[in-house]
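ok here's Raffinose/stachyose/melibiose transport system permease protein:
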Amino acid sequence: MNVAIKKVPLYVIALILLVFTGYPFLYMISTSLKSRTQFFEKPYSLFSSFTLENFKSVFEMGLSRYFFNSILVSVIAVFAVMLIAALASYPLSRMKFKLNRVVFLLFIAGMMLPIHATLIPVFKLSQSMGLYDTVWALLGPYIAFSLPISIFILTQFMQEIPASLEEAAKIDGCNHFGIFWRVILPMLTPALMTVLIYNFIHLWNEFIFALVLISSPENMTLPLGLQDFKGEFSVNIPGLMAALTLASLPILVVYIFSQEKVVKGLAGGAVKE
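and the structure:
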């Protein structure tokens, strides 16, 4: 009983945090289901009406195109980051060579580099390569700026994997390539899911590079496209809320199906269990 009573303040704090974080999302969904008239009549009510016209309207105005561009760029960039970061983290964590620490610190230094300082060079480089105003122009900066934190997470996780597993694989005749793919990589699943969800959320919401490198509507990603919806729906608040609701769904789906592995990856629990 005493233990339960001691936990009451924690439950109260958790409930307050739930209200503060959950209410804006519920309000967004509720507003997206209202017509303009219903919104102005009851702007603060939750789920007082139900209409799907707002969702139909935003798709008619090009939301599906922005969705496709964001999914294409985000998925390719995230999986490229996961592969490159895993391959880079393996020698940094499992092999001893002179510049090991230096190379690792150089990657970590990339986390301190402000992306805004690179906008002009990236813009010029995209133009010279003929990639400007294409979705492919986003892949380079997306992958490059996602690698430092990804390598840091995977390197720290790999260092916790027992060396005895690697030694057993060597006895069975595995070389470094075989050890990485058959032993290390399967055990990296929690950390890889952490890298996936962290980078997917960041890239899905990325705006500044898309603003600088994309100009035509057919190549815009979702965050950039939503800026146009804001202008077109300057009065139609429910229409804008419908677009924002749809934009939030992929992140929620990815996190719901990955949250357990994300927690394990952050805690390094898969090795210590």
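+1. Residues 1-51 form one domain.
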